[in-house]
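Good morning,

Attaching, inline, the backbone tokens for the sequence recovery test we're adding to the shared suite. The designed sequence is right after.
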């Protein structure tokens, strides 16, 4: 190998995984407020564009909004973006009861998306059938169609799916174009999370230089 050898990592898709400085009291306050809102509206989870949860003045949601903004800043720093980026957050809650799931989707019109996990069940119901189920996990998929078709064993392209089993207090941030799905909740306890979009306020600074 010569001194001229280079290995380029092209077209990366960065997913940030981190824990927020939360505690049981904060997550309980978030749970109480989300369930209160869920009880008031039958379509609270499915009609997620109706209200912006992250504009609430509830103290726990104010805390979460600030934490999400700091997480976005860390993502930007990792991406080596060295100019000012301005955005607003669009947020909604997910209350997944037994059997609930989210189909494959992405988030158009946003730059980044993410989720904070308020409550994650750890006691799934003992069901017959497949032993490889991962209840409540989130799966992300390679955005390059069929990139794995010519992959061989130990090649980084071999698996088009990356699966995460989230934990309470964890936050994930990813590019909004990335397709993902949430596996069914197979617990009698609710799986509660707050998802969000990072929507840019336009600036000509975002235009790439060619």
């Amino acid at each position: 190998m010569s001194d001229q050898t280079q290995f380029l990592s092209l077209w990366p898709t960065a997913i940030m995984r981190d824990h927020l400085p939360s505690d049981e009291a904060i997550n309980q306050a978030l749970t109480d407020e989300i369930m209160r809102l869920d009880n008031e509206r039958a379509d609270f989870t499915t009609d997620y564009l109706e209200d912006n949860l992250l504009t609430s003045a509830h103290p726990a949601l104010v805390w979460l909004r600030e934490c999400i903004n700091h997480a976005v800043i860390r993502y930007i720093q990792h991406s080596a973006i060295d100019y000012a980026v301005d955005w607003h957050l669009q947020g909604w809650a997910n209350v997944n009861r037994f059997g609930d799931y989210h189909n494959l989707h992405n988030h158009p019109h946003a730059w980044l998306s993410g989720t904070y996990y308020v409550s994650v069940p750890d006691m799934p119901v003992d069901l017959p059938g497949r032993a490889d189920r991962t209840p409540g996990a989130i799966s992300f998929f390679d955005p390059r169609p069929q990139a794995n078709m010519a992959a061989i064993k130990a090649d980084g392209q071999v698996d088009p799916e990356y699966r995460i089993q989230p934990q309470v207090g964890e936050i994930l941030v990813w590019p909004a174009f990335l397709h993902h799905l949430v596996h069914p909740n197979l617990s009698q306890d609710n799986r509660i999370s707050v998802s969000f979009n990072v929507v840019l306020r336009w600036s000509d600074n975002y235009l790439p230089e060619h």
